[in-house]
Amino acid sequence: MFGLLESGFGLFYWGNALMIVIGLVFIYLAISKDMEPLLLIPIGFGMMLVNLPLGGIMDYEMVLRAPQAGTVMEMQMEEGASFSKGGVICKLDSGEIVTPVFGRVDTLKISKGQHINKGDVVGKLITMEQTDQSVLPTRPIGLLSRIFKYGVMWQMLPPLMFLCLGALTDFGPMLANPKTLLLGAAAQFGVYLAFFMALLAGFTFPEAASIGIIGGAEGPTTIYVTSLLAPHIIGATAVACYSYMALVPIILPPVVYLLTTKKERQIYMKPSLRKVSKLEKIIFPLVTTIIVILIVPSSAPLIGCFMVGNLFRESGVTERLNKTSQTTLVDIITIFLTLAIGASMPAQNFLRSSTLLILVLGVVAFASAAGAGVLLAKFMNLFLKEKINPMIGAAGVSAVPMSARVVQVLGQKENRQNFLLMHAMGPNVAGAIGAAIAGGVFLGILH
Amino acid sequence: MIDWILAIKIAGGGFGMVFLILVILQVVVEVVRVTTEKITGAKN
Amino acid sequence: MEISAPLPGNVLEILVKVGDEVKENDELLIIEAMKMENPIFASADGTVKEIKVKEKDTVDAEQVLIVLE
Question: Nearest-CA residue of chain A relative to B5?
Answer without folding.
Answer: A196
